[in-house]
Amino acid sequence: MSVEERAASERVLAERERYVPRGVSTPTLVVDRADGAHIWDVDGRQFLDFAGGIACQNLGHGPETVVRAVQEQAERYLHQCFMVGMYEPYVDVCRRLAELWPGDAKDVKTLLVNSGAEAIENAVKIARAATGRPGVVVFDRAFHGRTNLTMAMTSKLVYKDKMGPLAPDVHRAPAPYPYRGVSTEDALHGLELLFKQDVSPDSVACIVLEPVQGEGGFIPMPPDFVHALREICDQHGIVYVDDEVQAGCGRTGSVWAIERIGVEPDLLVSGKTLGGGLPLAAVSGRAELMDAVHPGGLGGTFGGNPLACAAAVAVLDALSAPGFSERAEQIERLIRDRLDEIAARNPLVGEVRGLGAMIALELREKTPDAAKATTAAAFDKGLLLLSCGLYGNVIRLLPPLTATNDELERGLDLLEEALGDASAG
Ligand code: PLZ
């Protein structure tokens, strides 16, 4: 497309250069509007969206029930601050999250905040208050956020380089990565060493794990690893924090990814799709843990904003509606079959992996070059795709779970063409 044809985008890009710091990395896409699985840019180009604003649109753009709930709420009031004037939508979200709790716990309470990182920080605060211990154990390739504590918990240099000092008492252990030769046994051995070399398990408040590592490369945690961690937590009185910010909210078919593994966490952190496009994240857990923090120790001005809560009620209703997980399973099969075919034909591809409809292709080379070339070629063809992984060599697919088979097949065709262009170039 020529510069003239991209005039409206170019104007915003120039203003962006002038007024927004380079630290926020941005694409060249300038959005005008979005609907379902599609986005239109300000120059009228249409894109199929397999990025979903990084996993925030599991229900697609502008789901009717969510938009209507937000509009109705907007007519009543926009903000109260839950610590000043309570409102029912906040409590409704917490009740629904208790009903959707993945396990046997009867009394589940929830704290609502603004972002995934803030929710992770609060999960650590709660775990520390409950155990009286400082330590936090996280894993290789983890992503938990960009605030001071969560940047220490996140495992990629780009998110923290030159921005320390980092928060203390954060310890990293290996996580399984079968494709690159790290087994469950290797990872558990690494944790054993951590407990011998660096921190006593008696000083650890919590371990925090993504059931499917997201930014780290769409790596599903093997069930035997998750079960073993659960046992280690039980043995040492450590709080198991399940970070479902990216893998949760229906992405893997069930509402929570950990349901597919059959482990009950102590705290579950959700976000992204939870607010249906509005900023909302949550920490849920058994009442006795959640109540470990004294009154006044948790909160925030905007946490659980009424508009975001109204949206979340509609989102949680849609995710738990009959048929949602069956459709996600169909989508999983459609995508997986097609990616397996692509992998068999294209030597760039090393592995197809994922859990449910959270699926990715890892390219063989441990450099970002081919993945970047693929996402760029896809963009030119009208498909929005994101890469991920410590080496930037994983192409992840996050289509809406409301997409039609035609939309999914069209996106997969474009992905295959883009990969072809990348291997040719
Ligand atoms: N936990 C598992 O995936 C956010 C962030 C991308 P926030 N992931 C995408 C980027 O470059 O910042 C994420 C996640 C997991 C926590 C978070 C943090 O959620 O809402 O971005 O703070």
Molecular structure report:
Helices cover 39% and strands 18% of the residues. It has 13 helices and 17 strands. The strands form 4 sheets. A 7-stranded mixed β-sheet has the order 4-12-11-10-7-5-6, sandwiched between helices. Strands 1-2-3-15 form a 4-stranded mixed β-sheet. Strands 13-14-17-16 form a 4-stranded antiparallel β-sheet, covered by helices on one side. Helix 4 packs parallel to helix 10. Ligand PLZ binds next to helix 5. Ligand PLZ is lined by residues 54, 115-117, 120, 143-146, 210, 214-215, 243, 245-246, 271, 281.
Report the oligomer.
Answer: single chain
Supply the helix-strand structural class.
Answer: alpha/beta
Strand coverage percent = 15-25%
Tell me the number of helical segments per DSSP (H or I, 4 or more residues long). Answer: 13
How is the topology of this model organized?
Elements: H1 7-19, E1 31-35, E2 38-41, E3 46-49, H2 52-55, H3 64-76, H4 88-99, E4 108-113, H5 116-131, E5 135-139, H6 148-153, E6 170-173, H7 184-197, E7 204-209, E8 212-213, E9 219-220, H8 223-236, E10 239-243, E11 267-270, E12 281-286, H9 287-290, H10 306-319, H11 324-345, E13 349-355, E14 358-363, H12 369-381, E15 383-384, E16 386-388, E17 394-397, H13 405-424
Parallel strand pairs: 3-15, 5-6, 5-7, 7-10, 10-11
Antiparallel strand pairs: 1-2, 2-3, 4-12, 8-9, 11-12, 13-14, 14-17, 16-17
Helix pairs in contact: 3-10, 4-10, 7-8, 11-13, 12-13
Bound molecules: ligand PLZ.
The site of ligand PLZ has 17 residues, from helix 5.
Supply database-style keywords.
13 helices; binds ligand PLZ; 425 residues; alpha/beta; globular; four-stranded mixed sheet; 2 domains; Aspartate Aminotransferase, domain 2; 39% helix; Aspartate Aminotransferase, domain 1
